[in-house]
Design goal:
heterodimer, A: alpha/beta, Rossmann fold, eight-stranded mixed beta sheet, 6 helices, 11 strands, about 30% helix, about 25% strand, B: alpha+beta, Alpha-Beta Plaits, Dna Ligase, domain 1, six-stranded antiparallel beta sheet, five-stranded antiparallel beta sheet, 16 helices, about 35% helix
């Protein structure tokens, strides 16, 4: 006897790949703030997954600032683990990031940074975790991905460009490159879609 | 008045090896008439055939691996004192006899439901602390002590019963006064009941007023004033470990015992502790001290233990540890909400549904906050408090001073006016700031950073700070690099040099 399969359910959960640009259900993504980027991401940033942004350490941040502004309105921590420079408080506040929920974890060794990221992800007390890892192995990425799913919290990793060659269990990998009109975002990997497409996210000269 | 007496028959032994029944054979010796005799020995030693009263050489012959300690009365007194601190949560009126603790529980029996529950809680608590106890309950302190020592578990609630309860105990239990005992024995009497049956005036004439007063106190006919234990201002206890501990993870068990004692003390005082000071005692070196912080005052031993576990993870032991001390200098009164009363952990007292519902609601409300706190504590204790910080704006136009670190979650205390002023300015400023401005080469007056930079038209001039000597005079530009990146650069108006101070993209 043939088992009936709930096709709509599979489509809804993103488990079924349809071979064309499919969109994730609206309750599984956060809108990115740009229409072109939403289309590239299949609806927006995934809510409980590992996201990798490859580029210079500071370059990916403008892309997620609208996301951070939304996340920081939740009464949970928005955690920055080992940021490369000082996150400039007045500028963040001007871009609607609620500073009250920002948690900075700094001056760490590589192992401490990964530990802190995993703990915060798993705790379910955080709305999002940003991590600038020094060196990270595939097994450690896997742990972060699991922790992000467990705590249903997006983990955003900022990694150098050369990490593009390394395989990764991340749900989403983007390469970020500044261009005169904004940021060029190339999709390296996304669950349920082809990589290799790119778009240009327009930023004004203030990076907003 | 209703007294609960807690008699600790193995106290001399337990002060040396608390909560370590699985440890090897251990005996406590006392010298009497110039010879060393075993006074107490633990189960392992008894299994080897040792008995109290045995001579020490005999005992050593029977059991080669016997650990021997001389009885330490000072340490026993201190242990009783520590126990009193713990028991203060059950009674505000505590007195001592040798190896015996007396709690007045008549006043607190309603708080804890009924006497059986209370007795059970105390017994369990003492067991967790590593003490075996025999208890007795009676309306007078003297009778309660007598029952605990001789008829453990006996409970006498009113005075009429008391006469019968003590009547078959030998008089020797009551007094050590040899003359009185001899006299009574010569009359041919043995038990307390027989003595109490004698006509009183004759008895007083024969044995003197001292024994008569004791008998009166026993029956509650005469007042029995006792020195009451007073809670100290500080909590400080030290636990001597039986062996040397070289691994931090092995410290968790003794730490748990200290935390239980601390939380009992805090319960009694209605307080909570926020900063605990641990001391590790080494054999030949100064102690290692470290602090353990909690985000808010607490008296939950499990939570403190979880934080302790994280804290010792990053500890390097310089030498094996032979003792563990815990000290709390200042504790706060927990604001008057007796949450545990409603959560049912103090008493299983019947609570009507309405109250139970509201307690549930509150528990849900507190969950988010509690998770937050627990996470912060774990992070701060493992990584160090200075590494886990919040971020806030400050009312200053100089970029270096316009931001600051603060305790997590406290950024909101800034004035609203500051926030709006900052947000107007902040839009034209980058999300990343360099801690130190980076000097840029500027051949022919054009700043370079990986290539010549193109400057946006209008600079933002920041010239302020004359009042504290760190004044600046700068023109900030948004500059575009050759690869399209957006930088925040400034020209110092004093020396004309160019600097990179932040990144937009």
């Amino acid at each position: 006897m043939v088992q009936p399969v709930d096709l709509d359910g599979l489509k809804h959960s993103g488990a079924l790949w349809q071979g064309r640009r499919n969109l994730l259900a609206a309750d599984q993504v956060w809108a990115s703030g740009w229409r072109v980027l939403d289309e590239l991401l299949g609806g927006g940033w995934p809510r409980a997954a590992l996201i990798e942004l490859l580029g210079e350490a500071h370059q990916g941040l403008p892309l997620v600032l609208p996301l951070l502004a939304g996340l920081s309105r939740q009464a949970r921590w928005l955690v920055w683990v080992a940021p490369p420079h000082v996150p400039y408080a007045p500028a963040l506040q001007a871009r609607d990031v609620c500073l009250e929920h920002v948690l900075l974890i700094r001056d760490l060794s590589a192992a401490q940074g990964l530990w802190a990221a995993e703990q915060t992800l798993k705790s379910a007390a955080c709305s999002g975790v940003l991590l600038w890892p020094q060196q990270v192995r595939t097994a450690q990425l896997r742990r972060l991905q699991l922790a992000a799913e467990q705590g249903s919290c997006p983990a955003i990793l900022f990694r150098p460009l050369r990490a593009a060659d390394q395989g990764s269990p991340a749900a989403l990998r983007l390469r970020v490159r500044p261009v005169p009109l904004g940021l060029e975002v190339a999709l390296l990997k996304r669950r349920g879609a082809w990589g290799g497409v790119s778009c240009i996210v327009p930023l004004d000269r203030f990076g907003a | 008045m209703l007294w609960l007496a807690l008699y600790l028959p193995q106290l001399p032994l337990e002060v040396f090896a608390p909560a370590r029944r699985q440890a090897g054979p251990l005996a406590i010796v006392e010298s009497s008439a110039g010879r060393e005799r075993i006074s107490r020995c633990n189960a392992a030693a008894q299994a080897d055939g040792l008995r109290p009263g045995m001579l020490l050489p005999t005992a050593l012959a029977l059991c080669a691996g016997l650990a021997v300690r001389r009885r330490a009365p000072a340490r026993e007194r201190r242990a009783l004192d520590d126990l009193a601190a713990w028991a203060y949560q059950f009674s505000s009126c505590i007195a001592f006899e040798p190896a015996l603790l007396l709690l007045e529980i008549g006043a607190s029996r309603r708080l804890f439901g009924d006497l059986t529950t209370l007795q059970e809680r105390i017994r369990c608590g003492l067991e967790q602390l590593g003490y075996r106890v025999r208890d007795g309950m009676a309306p007078t302190a003297l009778a309660a002590g007598l029952l605990a020592r001789n008829r453990s578990g006996c409970r006498v609630l009113d005075r009429d019963e008391m006469r019968t309860a003590v009547s078959d105990l030998p008089l020797a239990c009551l007094t050590r006064d040899a003359a009185a005992r001899d006299l009574i024995r010569h009359i041919g009497l043995q038990t307390l009941g027989e003595v109490l049956a004698l006509p009183r005036p004759e008895l007083v004439r024969r044995v003197g007023p001292r024994l008569a007063l004791l008998l009166d106190r026993l029956l509650g006919l005469a007042p029995d004033p006792r020195a009451q234990w007073q809670p100290p201002r500080h909590f400080e206890q030290t636990l001597e470990l039986l062996g040397e501990i070289g691994q931090t993870s092995a410290l968790v068990f003794p730490a748990r015992r200290l935390l239980l004692a601390l939380c009992g003390f805090l319960h009694g005082c209605g307080g909570g502790a926020q900063r605990l000071r641990w001391g590790l005692v080494h054999r030949d070196r100064p102690d290692t001290d470290f602090d353990q912080g909690l985000l808010d005052p607490s008296r939950d031993p499990e939570r403190m233990l979880a934080v302790f576990r994280e804290r010792i993870e990053r500890l390097q032991l310089p030498a094996p540890v032979i003792g563990l001390g815990l000290r709390v200098d200042d504790w706060q009164i927990l604001d008057g909400c007796n949450r545990e009363l409603f959560a049912g952990s103090v008493a299983d007292s019947p609570i009507d549904d309405r109250v139970a519902d509201s307690a549930d609601d509150r528990a849900v409300d507190q969950t988010v906050e509690r998770i937050d706190k627990a996470l912060l504590e774990r992070l701060a204790n493992r990584l160090g408090e200075q590494r886990v910080r919040g971020l806030r704006c400050r009312a200053d136009h100089r970029p270096e001073y316009a931001w600051g670190l603060c305790a997590p979650g406290e950024a909101g205390v800034e004035l609203a006016a500051v926030a709006t002023a900052a947000s107007r300015q902040g839009l034209s400023q980058p999300p990343w700031l360099l801690t130190q401005p980076l000097p840029l080469p500027a051949p022919r007056g054009v700043p370079h950073h990986g290539g010549a930079l193109r400057l946006a038209d209008r600079p933002e001039r920041i010239e302020t700070g004359w009042w504290d000597g760190r004044d600046i005079a700068r023109d900030y530009f948004i500059a575009q690099g050759p690869a399209g990146e957006c930088l925040w650069v400034f020209r110092d108006r004093r020396d004309g040099g160019w600097y990179l101070h932040g990144f937009f993209v």
